[in-house]
Predict the structure.
Amino acid sequence: MNDDPGSTARAIEFWFDFGSNYSYLSMMRIEALAAARNVKIVWRPFLLGPVFRQLGFENSPFVLQKEKGAYVWKDMERQCGKYGIALTRPSTFPRAALLAMRVAVLGANEPWIGDWCRKIMQLNFVDDREIGSIDVVRDALDSLGLPAQNLIDAAQSDANKLSLREQTEQAVNKGIFGAPTFFVGGEMFWGNDRLEDALDYCDAIAARQ
Amino acid sequence: MNDDPGSTARAIEFWFDFGSNYSYLSMMRIEALAAARNVKIVWRPFLLGPVFRQLGFENSPFVLQKEKGAYVWKDMERQCGKYGIALTRPSTFPRAALLAMRVAVLGANEPWIGDWCRKIMQLNFVDDREIGSIDVVRDALDSLGLPAQNLIDAAQSDANKLSLREQTEQAVNKGIFGAPTFFVGGEMFWGNDRLEDALDYCDAIAARQ
């Protein structure tokens, strides 16, 4: 039983990776935008690396194509300026953040998921910290007042590791080829530039019902 | 001598290829947007195929990556819907349009350049015609009341063929890796999604002067 017949439509799936710079832009914007429209965020962390490898790329296109890579950081500066979001170009890119991603899978339905995701993104794209390190993850959990060791242990359980692997396979099966990607009512939207369109589509679905 | 000291800044270079679907979106929008801001369009047709090959790709990424290709046409439908632009998915993609591109280089500073570019884009992305064919080019020139045979002869002169080749080399040298690409005051903006930002940048430069 579902008390709110519109609840399924008024949700946006947010597929992201902490290493992805355009996921960072969406991460810092999605909660306010979704709340303003009464849209629920369904958090879908997945590993972009295996998705790229599945598509035949050994690394991010922003690394493999130097022209595109050079452009992307200019674009990021301008986009961050437009949105009023801080940015430091990470000294390592893209940063793997396996443990932090596992914590995100573990906490996907927890009230702290948004805080966690923004915290890790800020450590990567503002503070230029090694978000792949267990010490950085522990400090980040501590800073949010979360039980760091318990969550790290749970994140590293076989079941939770499998959850992230399965979610990554699901990304491939859904035709995801980059991040961020949004799904609304089965419709796919790729890239931070489509976040507003994806949210508009929630309203379009609701209007049809 | 330049009578208008702001004239250099209030210009946008529009780098495009008639085969490029996102160039189509910009083509149908740029003239009205630029006119509303008193910005001059500098028309820069170039061949995307050689640029892709220079970057190591044998074809458009929308053809080489089937997931991205499938997505792009959904995105095109939605974007065209949003902008109120007609769209028929071309039965051949990407379409080479060498002669039509040569006419565009020839006419880049002529009063009919905008009409020509929109006409060819419409033939490709609405009427699904073979814009690579000399007959289609001739009919298109006729339909605009232009001297078809004269322009076709001039477009196929060695000097004009060289102009298009040189402009394509210039695209590579400027770090262009896709289309459409815009330049404003030396700053590069990639993709139809950045057209408004590029035009905003004209105002930002003017405000600084």
About this structure: Chain A touches chain B through 21 residues (CB under 8 Å). DSSP finds ten helices and four strands in chain A.
